[in-house]
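Form 7-S
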Amino acid sequence: MLEGLAENGPTATETLREWRESGLGSVPLRNFLLHRFGQEGRFRPDRMRDHVDSVFMRGHHEALMVRHASVGAVRNIGLFGIIELVRDRATMEPLSAFNTTSEEMQLVMRALLDQGLYTISRWHAIMTNPPLCITEEELAEGFGIIDGALEVSDRAATG
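Output:
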């Protein structure tokens, strides 16, 4: 997954080695990558908004609502999203109480980490905020991991 930062370009390992050997270690890696790939036309920060608008995260959220009784609400603006987990959709009782976590929420987050997906959770919510340069395939892969992890929270949901 780290290989091939840009199509037909150097691998991530080669790019990191180049950054370390360039003597520009004090330059943030992000700036180095923008300079390196921006010059060659491979990475276009000026086109990022078009890319974000073309990636459809809402469909992934809605599919989770259909498949999982524990998904109480979903929302997103572009690639900034959240999944709220509940024990009961009728009452919208959260999977975790305010300012605490629950065993079920901890198990969901552990299942995500075990599958290599790191995200942030807050009480009964899972943030879905991928990098803006994500591809449709990578987004689908991430939501597939979330889909599997939500089986844990579904066991705690009553309807």
